[in-house]
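re the bet — no i am not wrong, look at it urself. input seq straight from the record:
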Amino acid sequence: MLLLKGNTPRWIIFLIDVFICIFSIVLSYLLRFNFTIPEGSFHDIKYVTSYVLLIRIISFLVGKTYSGIIRYTSSKDAQRIFTVISIGSVFFCITNLVTFYYDAFYFIPFSVIIIDYMATVFIMIAARTVVKVVYFELKNPSKQKTNVLIYGAGEAGIIAKRTLDRDAGTKYKVLGFIDDDAKKVGKKLEGVDIYPYEKLEDLLKDNTVAHVIISIQDMAKAKKQDIVEKCFPYNTKVLNVPPVTTWINGALSFKQIKKINIEELLGREPIKLDNEKIKKQLSHKVVLVTGAAGSIGSEIVRQIVRFSPKKVILLDQAESPLYEIELELLEKTINCEIEVVMGDIRNKDRMDNMFRTFLPEVIYHAAAYKHVPMMENNPSEAILTNVLGTKNMADLSVKYNVKEFVMVSTDKAVNPTNVMGASKRIAEIYIQSINKTSTTRFITTRFGNVLGSNGSVIPRFKKQIDKGGPITITHPEITRYFMTIPEACQLVLEAGAMGQGGEIFIFDMGKSVKIVDLAKKMIRLSGLTIDRDIQIIYTGLRPGEKLYEELLNDQENTLPTHHSQIMIAKVMEYNLEEVSENINQLVAMFDEQNNEKIVSKMKEIVPEFKSNNSIFEKLDK
C-alpha cells in the first residue's frame, strides 16, 4: 500500500527512467542481432550504452520528465516524454552522420536507434499509465465506484468523461454514452460503449446510476424533460455540462457540472426575435427602465444594452438592488452610458425633474407592486404605485414627447379577483386611453408568472427544500402559467418594437402548470423523496388568490401578429376624460385610508373585478 502514501520522490522516478533507457538500448541490440550478439560488438555496446545514457540523462534533466506526479499522469506528460526522447534520438542520428563523414562508420546502427526510440517512448509512457491505473484501482476499486451515464457522444461528451477521469476518477465510473446518432450506436468511445436513447431506461433499471450528465448544449426542452422523467423512478440525478463560454480558461471542471434546475424544464424553446427591428428602435436612443432593480426590470436592462442604446436610465427606489445591477453592468463590456436614478414614480415632481434632465425617448415601465396578498391588505399603496405611478409616467411621457412607452402588465388584470390585478387593469385602461390623444405610442404587454422572479413560488420552494420542508401550497388544484425571466423580457422588447400604439399584447404562456406538480418535481430534482424527506402541506387560498389565471377576458378575443408567441387582445376602449376623472377620485381617497371605499371605487372602474377569498367579497353582493 506504499503506492497510496504520498508522492514518489523525483530521484526515484529519474533512476527508473534511466533504468528503462538501459533496458531499451540492450533490448535494441538483442533485437538487432536476433538475440545473438557477435563477440566483436560487445565492445561497441559498452560505449554506445554509455553515450546513449549520457544524452538521455541530459535530456531528462532539461526536459524534467521526472517532475510529474505519476498517479496523475496526463496527455501533457506523455507529450513531454515523446518530445524529449525524440530530440535525443534525432541527436543520435546526427552523431551517426558526423562519424560517417569523418571515419565512414555509423557509431550507433540506425536500426538500433529506431528500436531504442520506440521501446523507450512506449515503456516510459506505459509504466506511468500502469501506475496511474493501479493507484486509482487500489484507492477506489471499480466495484465501489459510482456509475454515471453521459448523454451525447460528441466533443462535449468526451470532454465530460475526461473531466470525470481527471477530477473525480476516484469516485465515478462512466458506464456508457447515450446518443441519438445511429452511426455512433454500438461503437466504443475511449473504451466506453455507446447506447441508443431507447436503452436509457434499461441501463437505469439494470445498474445503480447516480447521475446522467447531459453534455449536449442546445438540447430541446422536451427531450430534457423526458430524460428527467425517466430518471426520477431510479433516484438518478440529471446534471448539465455548462456552456463552453463559462469554462475556466477554456477547460471544464467537474465542479462546474451542475444539477439541472426547474427553470430549464419549464422554459420553452428559444424565442426568435426580430433583432433588426429592436435594434432600429433602441440603437442610439435614451432608454428609461422603471423598476430597474426588480427581477423583470433588471433583465430588461440586460437585454437592452445588447442593442447599443445611447444611454440607459435605471430608475428604482430599492437602494441595494439598484446598486447591485449597476455593479453588474459596470463589470460588463457594454456600448452605452448607464445612469442610475433613485426615485419614486409616485412623486411627480421628482419624475418631472428626471424627464427634464435626461429626455428619455423609449420607456419600459416595469415598476409596480405585484404581491397579491400584500396588496389585498394594503389597497391604498396599490393604487398609489400601480395606478398613480403609472399615470405620472404616462403624463410626463406625453409632456416630454417620449416616442414609445411600453408597460409591463400581468395576467391577473384579466377578470381580476384581487386588488393587485384590478390596479394593473386600471393602469392598462389609462395607458390605452391616453394613446388616442398622444403622439407617444403607448403599448401594454401582459403575461403570467415568471420563474425565479421576486415573490415567485420557485425561490420560496427552494428555501423550504433547503430547510428540510415542509413545502406549503395554498390548494392542491391551483395552477399558474410560467415563463422564464429572459423569455418574458425578450417578448416585451419584441412587442415594443412591433407596437403601433394602443395595443395590449399577450404572450403565449404555454400550458398552465399545477403548482403541486411543480413542487414534486423540485423535490425530486433535489434528490429527495416526497413524504419521506420533504412533506407537502396545504394552507388554503390566500386573500385575493384564485385557482387559475386567465390571459384574456371572456368577452375579449385576439388578433395574431407576425410573431407566433405574441397576440393582440381586443379589449373595450374607454374615454380618456372619464378615465382620468375616475382615477383622480380614486387617488384622492388615499388620504382617507378607507380600504372599503377604495376597493368599491376600483370595482366601479373595473366592473369585472370580483373579489375572491377576500374581506372585500361583501362589496360584490
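see?? The first strand starts at residue 146 and ends at 151. told u. also The first helix runs from residue 10 to 32. so pay up
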